Amino acid sequence: MSEQKETFRDTLLKGEFVDVYFKQVVPVINECFSRALKTKEYDFFLEGDEKEQKIKKLFNYFNQLNNVVEDLEKTLVFIKIPDHSKISESFPEFENTETYYNYFIENYIIRINSLSDILGKILNLLYMTEIDKPNLYLFRNKIHKEFPELNTKILALAEKIKITKDKRHEKLHEGSTEFEYLKSVVFWNDLHTLMKEEAPAILKKTTQEGLDQMAKNISAEIEEYVILVRDILNISVVKLNEYLV
Q1: Cβ neighbours, 10 Å, residue 137
Q2: How far apart are CA 83 and CA 152, in angstroms?
Q3: What distance in Å separates the CA atoms of residue 24 and residue 16, rounded to the nearest whole number?
Q4: Mean pLDDT (whole number) for 206-226
Q5: Contact 157/116 with Cβ under 8 angstroms?
Q6: What's the predicted TM-score (pTM) here?
Q7: 173: burial class by Cβ within 10 Å (0-12, 13-18, 19+)?
Q8: Using CA atoms, how far apart are residues 160 and 145, in angstroms rounded to an integer?
Q9: H/E element holding 170?
Q10: Disulfide engineering: 203 pairs with which of 84, 117, 188, 217, CB 3.0-4.6 Å?
């Protein structure tokens, strides 16, 4: 039996932050859920003492973060489809093969942006920066002098996100018809479909090789994003412990 590949979620859930989270946050949430099931009048979201309310806020944001990472995994499954020539049969809703890839690459970029937004909300809680509408950029502006190690990691993540966002900006605002990720890929099957004929096998192979390389690149990008998020959380474990007191 082959060893199961580590998921992006597995990568996220490593280190001191998650250890403390599962030991101190999850039991309280389980107790609150249990209380809600036993007592009809108990409102999970509105009731509880100050500590419980703080824990529920953190649980909500961390759950969102976890969901985004899982969504990135799912999006990559669609990007890594093994035979692009079958897309029109499996997904007739898309105008052509290129439209299919544009859709899922945009989905990927949107999820990456969500990752940084949710992380900013978590850090705003832990560091008690009291930003009204928190995001990673506003948070960094508040803490960059006091927490230089954290600032360095956030800056690295923010710079990577900017590069990814710029790829979407170029497509949306500069009239480009494709993402930079696809600029080295020629969709021969789409061109030959317009001519009502099937693309030669050698051209299909060339397209698939380009798509496979693109999928590897995006997979590596996601891994880098998730590791940076994990590192930022692990740097913040002291603040997590303080928050949970």
Answers
A1: 14
A2: 41
A3: 12
A4: 96
A5: yes
A6: 0.89
A7: exposed
A8: 21
A9: helix 148-173
A10: 188
Q: Where do we find the tokens 């900013």?
A: 120
Residues 203/221, Cβ–Cβ less than 8 Å: no
Q: How many residues does the chain have?
A: 245
168 vs 185: CA distance, rounded Å: 17
Share of the chain above pLDDT 90, in %: 71
Q: At residue 225, what is the residue type?
A: Y
Token output for 76: 């990559």
Residue 61 CA to residue 228 CA, distance in Å, equals: 17
**Closest listed residue to residue 47, CA positions, set 156, 38, 3:** 38
> Tokens standing for 193?
């479909």
